[in-house]
Design brief:
single chain; alpha+beta; L-fuculose-1-phosphate Aldolase; nine-stranded mixed sheet; 11 helices; 41% helix; elongated
Length: 269
C-alpha cells in the first residue's frame, strides 16, 4: 500500500516535525499517558496523490460546522494514542483526515484508520477560525506543562494578564518569543464546544491560552513554533518557582525594562 510518507516529501517533513515535538513533550513530562494533542493543517501541501486517495473510513460527524475548512486536510494525533509512540511511529499513532464538503464531517484518508484526538472539535474550530481570518497559523498544540498548570491553581494568577506580566518579567526572552502573552480560560470540560469557543475568543489576543487546571493550547505557523512559545513560558515559570523554592520572591524585570524590550525588538506593547 502506498503511504503518504512515501509519496509526499513536503508532508513527510511536517509529520517529522510533529514526531520531533511529540518526543519533546514526552521527555519534558508534559504528556502523561495519552495526554495532549496535535493537529496540523497540511492543505497547502496536498498534491494529486493525496487528493486522489480513497477514504479508509466512513464519514465521521463533527459537533460543529466548519465553513472555512471544506476539503481541507489535517494530520492529527490519534485518540488514546501516546506522545511517546507518536514520536517513534507517527503514522501508526496519527492519521491524515479530510474535511467533507458538508463541512460537518470528516474522513480518514491515510495511512491507517486511526481516529483523531477526542478534542478534534476544539482543534478544528481553532483552525477554522484562523483560516477564516486569513492567518498563516497551521499548527495547534495542546499539552500539560507542569509548572504552568500548577500556577493555574492560584486564583491570583487567573486575573487578566497577571500571569503574562509575571512570566515576561522573569527572563527577557519570554516577551521576545511570546510577545502576545498567555490568555486564561476558566475551567471547562475538556473537549467541549464551550472550551473551544472560549479558546477562540482568547486566541484573538494571545498565541497561547491556559485552560485552568488542565493545560495550554498554542498556535503557530508550524508545530515547532507552537511548541517554542509554550517552552519559553514554561522556562519563565520554572525560574519563578525556583526563586520561591529558594525562599524569596523574585524581583522580576521592571515595567520600564519590559517596555524597552518592546521598543528594541519591535514587539506589541
Amino acid at each position: 500500500m502506498t503511504t503518504i510518507l512515501e509519496t509526499s516529501p513536503a508532508i513527510k517533513t511536517e509529520i517529522e516535525k510533529v514526531a520531533e515535538v511529540a518526543g519533546y513533550l514526552w521527555t519534558k513530562g508534559w504528556a502523561e499517558r495519552n495526554g495532549g494533542n496535535i493537529t496540523v493543517n497540511i492543505t497547502d501541501l496536498a498534491d494529486d496523490t493525496l487528493k486522489n486517495m480513497k477514504p479508509i473510513s466512513e464519514k465521521i460527524a463533527l459537533d460543529v460546522e466548519l465553513p472555512y475548512l471544506k476539503g481541507a486536510y489535517f494530520f492529527c494525533k490519534g485518540t488514546n494514542k501516546r506522545m511517546r509512540d507518536l514520536a517513534r511511529f507517527p503514522m501508526d499513532n496519527g492519521s491524515v483526515i479530510r474535511i467533507c464538503d458538508d463541512c460537518k464531517s470528516y474522513e480518514i484518508i491515510t495511512d491507517k484508520p486511526v481516529k483523531p484526538t477526542s478534542e478534534i472539535t476544539a482543534h478544528l474550530s481553532v483552525h477554522n477560525h484562523f483560516v477564516g481570518k486569513g492567518s498563516d497559523y497551521k499548527a495547534v498544540l495542546h499539552t500539560h506543562p507542569i509548572e504552568l498548570v500548577a500556577m493555574s491553581h492560584n486564583p491570583a494568577f487567573l486575573k487578566k494578564d497577571v500571569l503574562t506580566r509575571l512570566l515576561w518579567s522573569m527572563i527577557p526572552e519570554t516577551k521576545a518569543f511570546c510577545p502576545r502573552g498567555l490568555g486564561i480560560i476558566p475551567y471547562k470540560i475538556p473537549g467541549s464546544v464551550e472550551l473551544a469557543d472560549s479558546s477562540l475568543e482568547e486566541l484573538d489576543d494571545y498565541d497561547v491560552v491556559m485552560w485552568e487546571k488542565h493545560g495550554v493550547l498554542a498556535v503557530g505557523d508550524d508545530i515547532l513554533e507552537a511548541f517554542d512559545q509554550v517552552d519559553v513560558l514554561t522556562k519563565a515559570a520554572q525560574i519563578y518557582i525556583a526563586a520561591k523554592n529558594m525562599g524569596f520572591e523574585p524581583t522580576g524585570m521592571t515595567d520600564e525594562a519590559m517596555q524597552e524590550m518592546s521598543i528594541v525588538f519591535n514587539l506589541p506593547k
